[in-house]
Amino acid sequence: MIRLEALAKRFPPERQALQGIDLEIENNAWVLISGGSGCGKTTLLHLIMGLDQPSQGKVFLHHQHLGRLSAQARARLRANIGLIFQEPHLLQRRTLWENVAFPLELAGQFGRALRQRALESLEQLGLGARATALPAQLSSTERQLACVARALITGPSLILADEPLERLDPQNAALVTDLLRARHRAGGLTIVQTCSESPATLPDATARYTLCAGRLVPSGLLER
Amino acid sequence: MRAWIDAHLKAWRWSWGQLWHSPWGTLLALFILAFQLTLPALLVHLQHQESWWNAASAQRPHLTLYMQLGAHDDAIQTVWHTLAADTEVQSFQSIAPQEALDQIKRLPGLATSLQNLEHNPLPHTFVILPRALAPEALAALQQRLTRGPQVAQVKLDQQWAQRLAGLLRFAHNLARLLALLWLLASAFIVFHLVREQVQQQQQEIRISHWIGASARTIRRPFLYLGTLLGLLSALLALGMLTFLIQLYNRTAGDLSRLLDTDLTLATLTLPEILLLPLGTGLLCWLVAWVSSTWAIARVEQGEANGTS
């Protein structure tokens, strides 16, 4: 599903964010990538999302070399991925349910069914009552939960989550983890998740890596 | 199909919302655009007002048709009827030989010398005011009239006609150029307005692009916004233009009566009424397309440069 070959990213003038990263992620995997602040986790996910270009190396997503795709083609590819950003990016002029429903709109769905699905997704995360609120009226936690709902609404086969639990309190973090776990156990879902510290209790994780000095170091392969 | 309609309705509602969001700003922008459009539209309207240009030309070329000496009344009547029926002739004056002689006699110093004439040497004459001013049209009319019964000669001041036609051509070209310049100014205003909206929505555009929205999806509401601005300002310009023409005609009517000519302007024709909003709408759509495509390209450029 995802293949990284000799991936490197250098930010001018001399900051080497990532170097020599080789990684292959199979279908149905749940990969955890941990590391301290500024170690390059977000950069790595942005490279996999096609939001940034590597200085060296290749990124293959669904067997497609991202470097050879146009910006538009990369955007089309992203439409089929559940993306959770570190910052809870929401469209400010849309209500919460409209934000959550946005990926469905991009997939060409409209009407009452769309609203219904968005409301169900929000209900799952305890945000049903806030469905018509604008992002500016929400707390940071609520915005992050809405981003999770948006990432899951299309039922994607891949989720790229950049520190999805960092802004959440333990109760909501558990809620999101449970939701991801349920989807993952249902099958057909690959998750790549970054976190500042690798959680001790996540038996579903198939692989754990640590980003250290721009290099990806395996923290141990876990058998399910 | 349903999804396509829904997507467009959403973009349509969004663009109305943007206009409604700051009503005074919108109104001001629409009036500026409408003023910008009114002048070129008036110039284009003037270009098609043949009769107005004719009346406005102070010295117009005319033709003089001389019948043969002693031409029969039947021939004179035939020529009279031909002139009356010719659509290229705006008006004409028939001058009988005796009438012409009397006029000449009234000129100082000529009365005594003409008294000794045994017979009237002047032919029956027609002074013709043509409708068209183009030298080619005048020459064709001259040719046609020469073929009339017992017509001796049809005279036309070709040089003056050519000079006047040249002047009118210059005025038409100037009008076209000014219209184009004003239209370009309107296009720049719309470009700026859409660009401003795009700037305000920069973050929204970036997020939409990250989540996977295509350039077409991101561009759609801005295209509606540009088109709406164009259509609404064109409708406003139509109203202003109609008002201006009526106001002008009220003044020109009095002047026309004094000068014995018609300086009034015709009201807008149906093609003109349709062309202004459609043309402006299309132009603004194009300008909005350029403006929003440029903004999206900048977001994509940010990705390529690794500054996302």
Question: Mind explaining what this structure looks like?
Answer:
Chain A has 224 residues and is of the alpha/beta class. Chain A has 6 helices and 10 strands, in the order E-E-E-H-E-E-H-E-H-H-H-E-H-E-E-E. Chain A has a domain at 1-81 and 192-224: P-loop containing nucleotide triphosphate hydrolases (Rossmann fold, 3-Layer(aba) Sandwich). Chain A has helices at residues 41-49, 71-78, 96-106, 112-124, 140-152, 170-186, and strands spanning 2-11, 15-25, 30-34, 56-61, 64-65, 82-84, 158-162, 190-195, 207-212, 215-221. In chain A, the strands form 2 sheets. A 6-stranded mixed β-sheet of chain A has the order 6-7-8-3-9-10. In chain A, strands 2-1-4-5 form a 4-stranded antiparallel β-sheet, with helices on one face. In chain A, a hairpin with a 2-residue loop joins strand 4 and strand 5 (64-65). The model of chain A has no long low-confidence stretch (mean pLDDT 89). Chain B folds into 2 domains: 2-55 and 165-304, no CATH class; 62-156, 2-Layer Sandwich (Alpha-Beta Plaits). Chain B is built from 11 helices and 4 strands; from the N terminus they run H-H-H-E-H-E-H-H-E-H-E-H-H-H-H. In chain B, helix 8 runs antiparallel to helix 10 and helix 10 packs antiparallel against helix 11. The longest helix of chain B has 45 residues, at 215-259. The A-B interface holds A 9, 11, 46, 49-53, 55, 71-72, 74-81, 83, 85, 89-93, 102-103, 105-106, 108-111, 150 and B 2-4, 6-7, 10, 14, 203-204, 207-215, 217, 300, 303-306, 308.
